[in-house]
Amino acid sequence: MYGNDFSEPPEQPGARSLLDQVADAERDLELAAQQDRPTGTEDDYFMAVIAADQKIEPRDWMPEKYRKNLIRQIAQHAHSEIIGMQPEGNWISRAPTLKRKAILLAKVQDEAGHGLYLYAAAETLGVDRAELSDMLIDGRQKYSSIFNYPTLTWADVGAIGWLVDGAAIVNQVPLCRASYGPYARAMIRVCKEESFHQRQGYEILHVLSHGTPEQKAMAQDAVDRWWYPSLAMFGPPEGESPNTAQSMAWKVKRFTNDELRQRFVDMCVGQAEILDLTLPDPGLVWNEAEGRHDYTQPDYDELFRVIKGNGPCNRERITHRKAAHEGGQWVRDAAEAYAKKKAKVSA
Ligand SMILES: [Fe+2]
Ligand SMILES: [Fe+2]
């Protein structure tokens, strides 16, 4: 077992690995595109496309609530990708070797790319990227609460890769089947890259936990701090998640927050054993009757505090993003001037 290369869990024969599930979704997406599209009036056409597991495309009619809901979700996702560059970017200049630095640089650049695919997907819904950027900076739109925690040691880069990117994949693999075409296609690419992120984090922790006692202690400390915030990434439990039911009816979301959180816990236990690290939950035990692990829920009051802007690094993250946005104004101006000049020449 290495990273997210799972052997089949004995309790779920036939279970597919996460990357296999991405490949399945990609194949089904291509097959569905070859089928005849349903016919009908706007409203029943929309539901018929969803029922047939085909994709709603930008040209299609869609209910205003579906469009708005998707913009909110995709924008929040895009913001998380680019804010997520900060905690790890913090370690690029302090990576322990040239090789580690090159890998981390590539990973952080991938996150910028994920942001880009997702902003582009959001724009197909008729919203302007500049507007989304403003909404992030002035707090009207959110990003994942996990990125408001600090990266204190090099081992945190490992813990983020293993746990945070790991949780992201568990969350995002089902989104490869989301009913909105541009989102589903972006997710297929993103998931393939996230799998590399998860492995690089796992490998950092594996090296540290099999190194000196100090290195092992540093790895354990990082896992102790990142475990519960990673569980909280799946969002509030059932009943407190306002958008779940509608999102599931529209086949944007396929599983509840709790189902995905459970899947993540079950996935991490075997990997933690190989890493020789302990997940910081004395209540974590195998439940034979249910075929899954029992575990302690994260502190959801803390989650809501962080979402409301009172996590350890919220202000720092937005201040940094704002400065980067303002610092990039000349690039946007130059690109616009160049586009105008080119249009004039070709006219
Ligand atoms: Fe990402
Ligand atoms: Fe990632």
Automatic annotation (TrEMBL):
GO terms for molecular function: phenylacetyl-CoA 1,2-epoxidase activity. GO terms for biological process: phenylacetate catabolic process. SUPFAM superfamilies: Ferritin-like. Pfam families: PaaA_PaaC. Its EC number is 1.14.13.149. Keywords: Oxidoreductase. It comes from the Bacteria. This is Ring-1,2-phenylacetyl-CoA epoxidase subunit PaaA. Residues 1-20 are annotated as: Disordered. It comes from Longispora fulva. Transmembrane segments: none annotated. The keyword Oxidoreductase applies.
